[in-house]
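Before relying on records like the one below, remember that each one covers exactly one chain. Contacts with other chains, cofactors or solvent are not represented anywhere in the record.
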Amino acid sequence: MRDWKGSVAFVTGGGRGIGLGIARALAHRGVSLALADVDEESLASAEEGLSQVTAVRTYRLDVRDRQVFEKAAGQAERALGPVDLLFNNAGIAPYAPAAELTYEKWDLALGVNLTGVVNGIQTFLPRMIERRAGYVVNTASGAGLVSDGNVLYATAKFAVVGLSESLRHDVAEHGIDVSVLCPGPVDTGIIANTRTASAGVAVRDDLVPGVEAFLRSGPSIDAVGEMVLAGMEKRSPWIFTGYDVRPHLEKRTAAILDCL
């Protein structure tokens, strides 16, 4: 089993949801934490709890802002040491029917869910390559492997999966590992959080109860945090949180092969 003690992790979306679950799992393994989130109240709450276990620094960060990302990275490394574990986890759950799509909705959905991941990679990867060590975990979704009608979400999440798979091949020679987290339903507040975003990409009011019930049917954020660390121990290319996606993935794969 890998000894993570003494490592430094940078976690976007680290104040709540899956990011907080990952942070808790890391803290109990002696990892120092740099947590970034747009929600300062959640960051304060996370810091209060986690600082009793490990060293913690928090940064108010919109992952679309490259300058602030770079600034937060520098501050984190000066305070805690070189970041060798990067978790590009911040995300929203956007939705809009095709007939209601706008450039503004595309910009928000891709900006947070895809460009935010790119910004994290581009901020920290050169440092990791120079040190010839590191681990990157990008949060995608089961919807990044099997699409439904939510084109805003699927587009970004498919891209994160492809980015992660390609990056894994490219950086192995530099001593860096890459995994992509493809969660199914997880008991988080992502629907409520997305509804605070602009550009009208929130799930329709009448659909919210059903979607939230579906998410609550999944594992807790702490259980997912442990799954992520277990996947990293195995250096798994893909990390899943359940078997929900399997029948859909089998059907999609068979359909692709039938088209060859």
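The longest strand covers residues 176-182.
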